[in-house]
Amino acid sequence: MKKAISIFLALIMVFALFACAKKTEAPPASTPTAAPPAEPPAGGGDAPAPAAPGGSGGADAGLHVGYWDDPVDHYARDTYKIAYYSFFSGSFVDSFYIALQKTEKKLNIKVDFITANSDPEKFINTLELMANYDGVLLDHDANTEKRTWDVIQDIGVPWIAFSTPFMDGPDASHNRWPTVILDGKVVGDQAVSWLCENYQNYWGDIDPAKIGMINLTITTVGMMYDRGYGAEQAWLRYFPNNVYVEGDMAGQQITPETSYNMISAYVSSHPEVEYWFINTIMMLFPAGAARAVETLGIDDKVLITCEESITAIEEWDSGYRGSWCSAVGIAEELYAVPGAAGIVALIDGRATPETLWGDTITGQYGTDYAVYPLDTKVITYDNYKQYFEDINTKYFG
Known about the structure:
single chain; 397 residues; six-stranded parallel β-sheet; 14 helices; elongated
């Protein structure tokens, strides 16, 4: 656990910079909350499922282009030079690049990784050099978004917003360019729906009225707000009258120690709750939450989940079998494969920014450009290794 914490403390500010925008309204932090519209989704813990390629929705419904399985001879042309250009650097960016390199053989591309090492001026100045490439997968910084947008549009090369979107409109809900990002509302819903449907496997046939939920979130960071909101909505579908506590880390130090202190305080202030779900929207929170429940001596009456999986995997690799029972599995290939296939389709001219992944447009982020629906699922200690093996086999044999 110490290794995971030391690696990812340095990434906290990076994730904050990934924000789409500050939200003007946050879900209420109170107990109990009002009831939602009634029934849970038919898909259960994997719902709401992202729109599948070939599905319905949007002005370009039925247009299946920009995918790994496009019926195209990629070797009937010269090799494309693709830039993966990132404002950021670090192990998580390196992992994206490794996954992108795995797409080179099938798609007949060569991917170069360029980073500005979090230097805003260097990022903008180097961005102009992207004109030397056939296409660009772009990870920008929210603080220089306007300048980045102007420069990349002036360059005129095909590009995709890779893991960092360009959003505007009310609550930053309108997508302005094809992008591959984690849909926060979907993964938040997945994580908590799974707990709601599987808690009996851990606790048996308990009285569900004795279950409460703590949702550790950051309401001022758009991407993180969406995860917390999706988690809250899932909880309300299943347990609308039970205790719900929102732990908002906005304005606080984003550390495992903060989550430790918050969980300790919330649990202590609700002695009427016998069992707890704890949802954590990013990978640094669950370690502190797990330590807190261990200290309180209620480890066997708490189930912790997370909308990210890197630190969970490290814990499970070490043999950990505590209250931190699940996470949304995030493999870099889920980003790299559609990103690489999509940029090739744009360079080929088989797709335009408006038609790329057109059959996935559902309107949640507008109908102008697609937000590629990453096919995530909840993983546990028992299935996480097989999950990542299956993803690798699916795309690379």
